[in-house]
Write a structure and sequence with these properties.
By secondary structure, this protein is mainly alpha-helical. It contains 1 helix and no strands.
């Protein structure tokens, strides 16, 4: 982890909680979660719109007419 031990991470998290407080961190988490949810929703809507705008193809088994074989005789 680039020279960071678990203790460095724990101390960093404690300092962040002491600086910002739990209420600000909770609000930040809620805001980030809402932003991710909105982002996923917009991506899903964009994909649905793109799928609706694509021309539809018909996958029917269309057999080509072959010319009648000539009768020899």
């Amino acid at each position: 982890m680039a020279g960071l031990s678990i203790w460095h991470v724990v101390i960093f998290l404690i300092v962040v909680v002491l600086l910002f407080g739990t209420s600000k961190l909770k609000n930040l988490g809620k805001d980030v979660g809402g932003a991710v949810k909105d982002f996923k929703k917009s991506i899903r809507e964009e994909e649905e719109t793109a799928a609706l705008n694509q021309p539809k193809t018909i996958d029917a088994d269309v057999k080509t007419a072959e010319p009648a074989s000539s009768v020899k005789g």
